[in-house]
Amino acid sequence: MEIKDSELTTEYQDGLSETVAHKEPSPETAEATSYAEVLPAEETESVQTEQAVEEPQIAPPPKKKRGARIFWNIFLIAIVAAGILSLFGIVKEIAPTAGMSLGEVFSGASPLFIGVAVLIVVLTMVFDVSKYAIISKTVTGRVHLATSAKCHFIGKYYDAVTPFSSGGQPMQIYYLNTKGISGGNSTAIVMIRYYSSVVCWVTLGAALLIYGTVKGVLDSASGATILKVTGWVGIGINLLIPVFITLFLIFPKLMYKLTYGIVRLGNKIKIVKDVEKTTARATKVVDDFKNSFKLMATSPVKLILLILVSFGEVGLTFATPFFIMKAFGCSAVDGQIITVMALNAFATFGVSFIPTPGNSGVVEGLGALAFSAFAGATLAWSVLFWRLTVFYLYVIIGIGITVFDVIVKNVKYKKTKVEKP
């Protein structure tokens, strides 16, 4: 089944019409006029008919039972603790002299580069929030800055606490829907951001791995063979999704047939139970991506801006360990920012297929191996603060947001009860 370019869902067309119109007249008039501008005449009547049907709200993600929540919270704490313990254990093995206390580390730290490191972390967040804002402006006609910021932190938190970072997108879509953004537009915002991020992530990551291999950046690192093998395996796995989606966009007929064939094979070897449902589910995801990017294509300037901030966020993420080591006074890292970024790429992609939340329990150890040549006596603390900026911080912020939301809901509930006669 091939989906024509004109066959957008009503939800996606809502976003497209708002982008073309650049104003918000009455819903019926604005949508009918905007669709007439972007759709063939023969399709306008059917689209207007679809608009008369009220869009259903997205159901909230299924709530975990109390026992399951307790189990996963304990599991997360155990994994994080195991990661930190493994970090200090590995550091003791590969660098016996790297036993500085935290007080000693900060006493020799550079106030200037501590400020720079904090700025880098904040800019990384700002760039990611900007992605949601840019896409939201394109899809809905409005920036939704505060909503974009909270969506960023919600996604990072649920990615951090779920295996394979699988929990962020569903919660983001549901959250955006509760803020009055339609189901289709919520899905479009989250999917476009995900795809742009993962494409820039693997593109820059692959470039850094190639650079690192050619320049031999692992020659002086401990566990060079492990880092090299796992790094390339990891980026190969991460390439599967963007390559698969891109091929669907370029060769839709061929990829639909290939998907059906893969699902049929899975059914024969007893991995897939229902061929039709599994195929429909897989193709729906791709169709959503396809329709989402048709929206971004209506605004090339915003698309270019999205690509720039996506590469900016990824670049700062890879460079964060460099600025942390500079802040801790590691002179060996001077002028080695690209080398450190390459080492970070090997460590990060090397654990990307580990199913633990945030790859904890493994990434700390692999990071210690990667940065052992530059961090010196501050190795353990450099890796720990690197993990703080990319993982622990988002868990802490996510817990804070969750607690705040619960308090606000309770206050509103009590206020409502008091106001009732």
Describe how the helices and strands are arranged.
Blueprint: H1 10-21, H2 27-38, H3 41-51, H4 66-94, H5 102-107, H6 111-140, H7 145-161, H8 168-178, H9 183-215, H10 224-250, H11 252-268, H12 275-297, H13 300-327, H14 337-350, H15 363-375, H16 379-419
User: What sort of overall outline do the alpha carbons produce when their principal axes are compared?
Assistant: globular
Overall radius of gyration: 24 Å
Helix proportion range: over 70%
Poorly predicted regions are 1-54
Proportion of residues in β-strands = under 5%
Order of helices and strands: HHHHHHHHHHHHHHHH
Number of strands: 0
Largest sheet: none
Question: Termini, distance in Å?
Answer: 58 Å
Structural class: mainly alpha
Count of DSSP-assigned helices: 16
Give the rounded overall mean pLDDT.
77
How many independent structural domains?
Answer: 2
Walkthrough of the structure:
The structure is a single chain. With 421 residues, the protein is mainly alpha-helical. The protein folds into two domains: 10-51, no CATH class; 82-250 and 283-389, no CATH class. The protein is 77% helix and 0% strand. The protein contains 16 helices and no strands. It has helices at residues 10-21, 27-38, 41-51, 66-94, 102-107, 111-140, 145-161, 168-178, 183-215, 224-250, 252-268, 275-297, 300-327, 337-350, 363-375, 379-419. α6 packs across α7 (145-161), α7 runs antiparallel to α8 (168-178) and α15 crosses α16 (379-419). The chain is globular, with a radius of gyration of 24 Å.
